[in-house]
Amino acid sequence: MSSFHLRASYVPYMARLLRTLCVMLAAVYTLPASAREQVVTVPLAGGQSIVYLLTQKDDSKPAWVLVMMPGGDGRLDLRQEADGEITMREKNNFLVRARGLIVDDRFATAIVDSPSDLPDGYTDRFRASSRHTQDIAQIAADLKRRFPAANLVLVGTSRGTISTAFAGRDLPGTWQAVVHTSTLSSPSRGQALPLAGFDYNAIHARQLFVHHVDDACFLCSFEAAKRVASGHDFIAVSGGNASGNPCKAMAHHGFNGQDASVVAAIKAWIEGAKWPKEVN
Predict the structure, then answer these.
(1) Residue 231 in contact with residue 198, Cβ under 8 Å?
(2) CA triplet 147, 88, 37: central angle to 5 degrees?
(3) Dist. CA 48–CA 53, nearest whole Å
(4) What is the pTM of this model?
(5) Residue 118 near residue 71, CB atoms below 8 Å
(6) What is the DSSP letter of 183?
(7) pLDDT tens string 24-67
(8) Measured on CA atoms in the order 260, 264, 265, 269, is the torsion positive or negative?
């Protein structure tokens, strides 16, 4: 009898573990069979360099290339092995895992790593710097050489929205649109300070803000996000799954469980199609 009770006591634990594993596996989307990827190196001033991961459908001529800035410290350690295999950190990041949902005949993505002289990744202050803006400008120029007819869209998530704010503002002729997801809308505790009082109206390109109503990250108040997005397009996301650190990718902060719906809404907005103001 005691052994039965012991085994039975594991049932709720195993059920929770199984649910967690299913959520994690569902969040990592595979690329379409027709997609191909390459790590591209762009030289910078002073002998430094920066790499990005280019993902596109084979032989496509995309109308839209999304230049994507992941959150956290932005250090991906992108590498391409001799056999073509891509290795990187932060595979669960919303933008990293969503690229397989974005890429099709009309869309390609370029996920930006941190530059070679920042081995520990980006600080908030660096993301707001003119040097960072110029690094992104070099990537944009490389993409325009590859896809001269494409429109470039700057997309960031979490701390990557510091990059979209400043590079969106300071490279006015580069972007057809700027998308901020899980914006650091409530800077505090000495973090995300470059965005305190930032004037989003200084960005000339059209803008979209995407935010989960239950984002529990202390830097990302939903109500504050609506305030900073005033006058610009806004998509409110609800539902999905949340686990772990509320400021990480597997929480509502990373749209966990809502990837496909969020990506579809963003793509519709970019193309000027009918788009939902709520995703649930």
Answers:
(1) no
(2) 30
(3) 17
(4) 0.89
(5) no
(6) -
(7) 444 445 677 678 999 999 999 999 999 999 999 998 999 999 99
(8) positive
